[in-house]
Amino acid sequence: MPRHVAIIMDGNGRWATARHLPRAAGHSKGVDRVEEIVEACIVRGITHLTLFAFSSENWRRPADEVSLLMRLFIGTLERQVARLHTNGIRLQIIGDLGRFEPRLRELIDVAHRKTMDNERLTLTIAANYGGRTDILDAFRKLVVARPEVAADPALVTEEALAPYLAMHDAPEPDLFIRTGGEQRISNFLLWQLAYTELYFTDVHWPSFDATELDRAIASYRMRERRFGRTSAQVGG
Ligand code: IPE
Ligand code: IPE
Ligand code: MG
Q1: Whose CA is nearest to atom 13 of ligand 1?
Q2: Is the CB of 118 under 6 A from ligand 2?
Q3: Domain layout of the chain by residue ranges
Q4: What is the CA(34)–ligand 1 centre distance, in A?
Q5: Measured in angstroms, how far is the CA atom of residue 57 from the centroid of ligand 1?
Q6: Which residues have C-beta within 8 Å of that of residue 51, sequence separation ≥ 6?
Q7: Is pLDDT at 220 greater than 90 in this prediction?
Q8: Domain 4-222, CATH among 3.40.1180.10, 1.20.272.10, 3.40.250.10, 3.40.50.2300
Q9: Over the chain, what is the mean pLDDT?
Q10: Are the C-beta atoms of residues 200 and 183 closer than 8 Å to each other?
Q11: 58 an active-site residue?
């Protein structure tokens, strides 16, 4: 079983368009799927689930779609945080939260504080997240925290940088899933995905259910993770 699953929840718009529905219908159906997949992960013993909900590039969408996504985010936090907490879920939001409206930032802050000691599943939502910015921010924080690094580039190591990355307290993702048929990373967890097993499916996110999750996990279990070694070395 993977410990950490990271998902790009893509295809909401196309799911809706294929059904002659407004894109908004795809987004709200997508929110319902989150609930189902969170439950499925807990049942399967997955300890970390990271979901890409809004990229730093998604601001480029039409203003009405962006505002709909923000309202959905707010509504979901208002309705679901208590239940997540009861279910032992630790909720984390990563990304540049500064650009969000105050009400959303406040809900995120409350959710963080309320659920921070929960241990059954760490659910991380990437919102206004970009992988390149994550790495650059980490580097800036490292230099501020340890000014000697600026004078001695040899001090810039993976180990030195890692604590400043957004997902520093989680194991690296074992399994990456992208729904919706595109085969790209779209500036998701660039650093953290270095040795993650990648799984792409044409299924749109609003149709991605526990059975589809099991397909992805079955594919993952067929993989041999070598981390640069030979098959013989890893016992294949
Ligand atoms: C993913 O679905 C949700 C977000 C990016 C917020 P899309 O909205 O990208 O759906 P498609 O790719 O247009 O079908
Ligand atoms: C990636 O999906 C971001 C999220 C799912 C939140 P996009 O639909 O924005 O990605 P591109 O534009 O097709 O690469
Ligand atoms: Mg898309």
Answers
A1: 13
A2: no
A3: 4-222
A4: 14
A5: 12
A6: 6, 7, 9, 34, 123, 124, 125, 126
A7: yes
A8: 3.40.1180.10
A9: 97
A10: yes
A11: yes
